[in-house]
Amino acid sequence: xxxxxxxxxxxxxxxxxxxxxxxxxxxxxxxxxxxxxxxxxxxxxxxxxxxxxxxxxxxxxxxxxxxxxxxxxxxxxxxxxxxxxxxxxxxxxxxxxxxxxxxxxxxxxxxxxxxxxxxxxxxxxxxxxxxxxxxxxxxxxxxxxxxxxxxxxxxxxxxxxxxxxxxxxxxxxxxxxxxxxxxxxxxxxxxxxxxxxxxxxxxxxxxxxxxxxxxxxxxxxxxxxxxxxxxxxxxxxxxxxxxxxxxxxxxxxxxxxxxxxxxxxxxxxxxxxxxxxxxxxxxxxxxxxxxxxxxxxxxxxxxxxxxxxxxxxxxxxxxxxxxxxxxxxxxxxxxxxxxxxxxxxxxxxxxxxxxxxxxxxxxxxxxxxxxxxxxxxxxxxxxxxxxxxxxxxxxxxxxx
Length: 400
Fold this sequence. Notes:
The protein is of the alpha/beta class. Helices cover 37% and strands 12% of the residues. Helix 3 (38-50) packs parallel to helix 9.
């Protein structure tokens, strides 16, 4: 990753198709656009690629979660369970839906721990959001079974796992829906953009209407201004340039994943020399999207020592145990109840009563796990020289 590494004539061709029509809006302008509907085509092809029946394109992966939650009817008083290792967008979207995020521990998959999920379910739980973090699958079969027993829908946050499969089945197709991100650092990118896939036609219709101010998109003599609206919505429309980029990038996705797998295998062989090393539990190595290479040391002290040597040799790894974007204990704005709302919402009600307090120390098993975790982002293309530099640094750390 990311997909900008393979930008070429294919992306330019798709974009020029749009620019030649002059129509950037995904709807209307039938005569002017000459039959070119890039977003609509992208939705169909991405859903088909994943093995889903329907796709709904939106402006971002964050918007994808928000639109899906709206279509699921989530609102005030509801709880939505997700995991403590994820990008902040997952729980921001929950708050923005007026619901309350509840966080679970993660296990050696670096994703939701099903055993802890079972403990966190209450009568207020309305949706469960496992995240296929760093391109690897959560224990989605176990999670879905737990959710089904409680009658709770599963929304798969697949933002970082496009192209990832579990036993031949694409992530994002196990639950009610799967959400994807195509931002600038994703394996396939449209700069900004997102997608929701589902097999439920009626659910897709709700998302389609909500993401476009509630417009029902019915064909009518009055054109767009004559459409009806059954409920209020908002604007999360993807524009044609993003759809064009998505089509070109989707055609390259499997090749990008294959390149990443080769590089990841080289990195793993080097890391196997580190005393006491163990590796992230990838449930289906064949279906791995290989966007990241993750390994554990025996304890935090060893992880710090190893990464210091890697940094000294221009090959420092990501220490997610210290990361403020992706790990619960370091979300300082969450723990500080920081918000622009004058009344303190969503942490306080409008009368000033505290709704929730998040304790940074609440998930100790995840902290112990991530404290000894080191991660490399795996590029689509890497020079032999750079790959040798990284593997050489890893071997030096192994001998230290």
